[in-house]
Design goal:
This protein has strands spanning about 1-5, 10-20, 25-35, 40-45, 50-65, 75-84. The protein is mostly beta strands. It is flat. It starts with a strand and ends with a strand. The relative contact order is 0.26.
């Protein structure tokens, strides 16, 4: 579910989501440090139980050139996301 709005100088959106999964595969489970390379290793991990992922995402964009002629083609974009 979400909401999106825009004007000549700005855009704004917010969305909330909730997803239920069975037989979920986590694609970036931290496996630890590789002893030979010293790099972090990630491994796909199968999660047997059901998984629920929910969260909120918010973003806003300001087209600065619409407010200040000297900043034509410049924009400022802010985003925030939270999930559990």
């Amino acid at each position: 579910m979400g909401f999106r709005a825009s004007t000549d100088a700005s855009e704004f959106s917010i969305s909330a989501y909730r997803n239920d999964y069975e037989n979920f595969i986590e694609s970036l489970a931290l496996n630890g440090l590789n002893a030979q390379t010293g790099l972090l290793e990630f491994q796909a991990r199968y999660i047997i139980n059901e998984v629920e992922i929910s969260g909120v995402a918010v973003s806003a964009t300001w087209f600065m050139g619409e407010s200040f002629e000297s900043l034509a083609h410049w924009m400022l974009r802010l985003s925030y996301s939270s999930q559990k």
